[in-house]
Amino acid sequence: MKPAPFTRHVPKTIDEVVSALAEFAPQDGRILAGGQSLVPIMAFRMARPTHLIDINEVEGLDRIAIDGDYLSIGARARHGAFHKPVIDGVLGKLLAFVVSHIAHYPIRMRGTFCGSLAHADPSSEWCLVAATLGAQLVVKSVRGERIVAVEDFLEGIMSTSLAEDEFLAEARLPLLPADTQFGFYEFSRRAGDFAMAAALVTYRLVDGVIVDAHVGIGGAEDRPRRIAEAEAVLNGQAPSPDLFVAAGEAAADAVEPLEDILTTAEYRCDLVRAVTRRALERSLP
Amino acid sequence: MTAHTKGSGTTWVGRSLRRVEDPALVTGQGRFTADLPAVHWVRFVRSSVAAGTIGSITAPDGAGIVTAADLKSLKPIRPMLSKFNYVAVGQPILADGVVRFTGEAIAAVYARGKDEAEDIAELIEVEIAETSPLIDAIDALADGAPLVHAEATGNVIVEGRIVTPGFDEVWKTAHTIIRVDGRSRRQNATPMEARAGHAAFDASTGRVTLTCTTQMPHLTRTAVCDIIGMPESDLRVVAPDVGGGFGQKMSLAPEYVLLVWLARKLRSSVAWTEDRRENLIASFHSRDQHVELEGAFDKGGKLLALRGDIVANVGAYSCFPTTSGVEPLMALAELPGPYDVRAYHCRSRGVLTHTCPMAPYRGVSRPVITFVLERLMDKAAAFFAIEPTELRRRNLIDTFPYTSATGLVFDDGSYKATMEMAIAAIDLRSFRKQQQTARENGRYLGIGFATFSERTGYGTPAFAARGMAISPGFETVHLSIDPSGFVEARIGSSPHGQGLRTSLAQIIADEIGIDPEFIKVVHGDTDRSPYGWGTFASRSLVLSGGASLIAAQKIRAKLVKMAGHMLEAAPEDITLQAGSAHVIGTDRSITIATLVRAAYHQVHIFNGEIEPGMTETGTYDPSGTFSNACHVALVEVDIDTGRVEMKKFLVAEDAGLIINPMIADGQVHGGVAQGIGNALLEEIIYDETGNILSSTLADFLPPTSREIPEIELHHIETLTGNSITKAKGLGEGGAIGAPAAVISAINDALSPFGVSIDEMPATPQRIRAALRSSGKLPSHGRFA
């Protein structure tokens, strides 16, 4: 259980990162950030990059700061950085609540926010956050920079629209209005395991009714995404037990559930129904 | 010279002495097999398919590789059993022409580095003509099923039957028949340390030292030497610190034979460290048993007769030394458990399949039969509309010695008393009220009781009854006090986490009047310890403890005789205490250290009445003793997701005299944790092609501390005549009772839905599927 041989490169600047990537990506080169997903699959030799471009010594990549109306999260910002709210307001609280569900403490001290997005595991909490809130992703290469919306970035199970020479340099999460309600609920077999289904909901209450509902579901389909059918159930309605049940039903009806030898589509839908409703229950003030 | 004075006459047995094993382990100073440097590192090339015929094996030029063709001089591993229609199938050290499970070793590659060996192993090409595999035991039993071994007709490797006289007449008198069809899926014992072996050839003596993660060093020496055909005096087997075994390290690993053979061939040192994936797919598996059970009850809820049919999937080969009869035959003998039932009819079969071989795992069949039997009792209680504990009260044995329908003799125990203690401690009556209130609010709490016996500390007769060619049993202890005054106990047991060094020192200390800190227990080295059987089957405290006591009694007698001589007193007037021999009622005394020096250096003063030196041997081979306990689980089941939350666990345990309460409690805690894993989480899964899907710890799920609730412990100490220390074993009880209690609690929680969960692990998927098929789920969830 040792990785196949590889060469490690340690660039010091983003320019060096993208040049190295341009040079080595065609020879199966990969970015190494926290390594909490990549290194285990390398140990099983399921991934066998011949070059690793290690971004751990690039200055400034751990930046987390407000830039205008969004929160900028650098490529090496680690999960653990979010244990305490990184900013005042709802978004900081939301990220701090979600982060405690990611694996275990030692993993959170190494793994990175952007690494999770680039790895694109369907059960990733950060992919769910990005999808639900509508993240913008800053992608760099020697060819230049482009900004990609999350729904165009996540393409499927461990699959993104990143070109092989592109580097996910930064994720931008929109700041949330002060009156935003949020709720998150995740189902896994044991504490810290991959989510078998998770829901993140945000909305605002205006005159007692829900507006701008976002309902994101992760772990159930090939990628986390917003479920418009569930949002439609919620928008314009006052929160109530029946409404939340109906939203759960709508989400369960809308997803195309992943199946495996243990988990039937029917069961995955049961979980979607439950996590959606419970995330909504947790969102109440 | 050492003065043994610190204890000032206190009794050491019964105290929670801190474990002498721990300082090294918790400060990173432990010494494990994988810590040893080696010249050559071995990597095994393993089969990627479950069944097939091996064609060519192609290696890169210059690669160091061993295949079956190189091992023609080695005998196969062929454990023997002379009863129960056992078929003595053989296992080659490396697959020889045929592969029988995914993960079976086909070749061994060796190189100067661990990584290099892995890189070369990856380049070995093995052609296998795949055949269709048998994964499930029921499929393997079907007419016309292909044979895993040609000599084992119908794929049955062992079959035992017991029918008590007049069974049918009793059966006919039943008021009601209750049935359970129980299934416990496949597991892996998952010790923290996977297996590792290191074999070093010594050119000056021609000997090999095999250091490995074994629970039985002497049996490993015997087996390896038999297979290779070498004198046992040329092989030293060392078990250094071993990071848990649970039975998985009790059975002979073919890999160790290869290492010794290769070390001799290369006249060098070779090492192998198993990785977690190898451990999960190719070490040894456990459980995978199917028990159909019927109970005939009279109208008062008294169990009259039991009829069972047990099928154990034993995998592709038979494990050495117990044979794969170990699980099905123990199930056959112990299925009636702690209940008084005179009529018994049971068939138990071990079935070969194209899966990883089975080894005994903590509890050996009893976690499964206890779970099924306790389901039967719970279902009967529901039929009679009484508390499950009331039904047990009407059926538990309570006069001793009790001879079971299968001929087992139960010594003094507290089957009913531990249950009553548990009922009181958990406050069953208030729980029922709380449960009712919760249900009205859409929450489903459940309580489950498991009452069971744990056969421990059994000697050669119990194993011989199974017809084993190798009948484990006795233990020997060589106890010495050297001229420095320090005590050394060399034992044949091989503890690997049980704290036995501490417990034995406590037993010896009380007998010879020397504090435990002066007593060192030596084990796990065939050059230093007497021939023994190792540590398994909840035996070591009873057997090595008994042997230690016998040896200590001899040392004591000798010291007393010497003290009598030197103090001019009658031996019966001498006591040994706190490092000195005292003449009772006087101020005359002499230190034990002085006596010991005299035994070595002044032996002439005893006029030939004392043998020189201070070494005695104790051997103990008892019939065995039964521990008992009542386990209680409190759970909440989330009906929307099927998830089970453990709220609390309680154990009322009787393991006789407790030598070290802290160590005893630790054994129970660990066993309960594994039992919860068995009940809820752990499952090795093969797909229909024989590919194993749970080959990492992301897929095979042992419980973590977050899944284990508070465990409350209570003890009763019934002093048995079947153990000279009065201690009973308790290594397995935690794992035996917990699965049954947890499953019982889940079923209690779900009783409003009329479902019966009779399969372990009770995964959320299985629970939710059962709830869905009940048709009684509420159409709307709750609003918490």
Structure, described:
- The complex is a heterodimer of chains A (285) and B (784).
- Chain A has 285 residues and is of the alpha+beta class.
- Chain A has three domains: 7-54, Uridine Diphospho-n-acetylenolpyruvylglucosamine Reductase, domain 2 (2-Layer Sandwich); 64-174, Uridine Diphospho-n-acetylenolpyruvylglucosamine Reductase, domain 3, CATH 3.30.465.10; 180-283, CO dehydrogenase flavoprotein, C-terminal domain (Enolase-like, domain 1, 2-Layer Sandwich), CATH 3.30.390.50.
- Chain A has helices spanning 14-24, 38-43, 90-99, 105-108, 113-119, 125-133, 150-153, 228-234, 241-254, 265-283; strands at residues 7-9, 29-32, 51-54, 64-67, 70-74, 136-141, 144-149, 154-156, 159-160, 167-174, 180-187, 197-206, 209-218, 225-226.
- In chain A, a hairpin with a 2-residue loop joins strand 12 and strand 13.
- In chain A, helix 5 (113-119) crosses helix 6, helix 8 (228-234) packs antiparallel against helix 9 (241-254) and helix 9 (241-254) runs antiparallel to helix 10.
- Chain A is globular, with a radius of gyration of 19 Å.
- Chain B is an alpha+beta fold and 784 residues long.
- In chain B, 28% of the residues lie in helices and 25% in strands.
- Chain B has 19 helices and 29 strands.
- In chain B, helix 9 packs parallel to helix 18 (733-749), helix 14 (500-512) packs parallel to helix 15 and helix 17 (661-680) crosses helix 18.
- Chain A binds chain B through residues 1-2, 4-5, 44-45, 187, 189-194, 241-242, 244-245, 248, 261-264, 266-267, 270-271, 273-274, 277-278, 281, and chain B through 114-115, 118-119, 122, 275-277, 638, 640-643, 681, 685, 687, 693, 696, 698, 701, 703-704, 706-707, 763-765, 768-769, 772, 780-784.
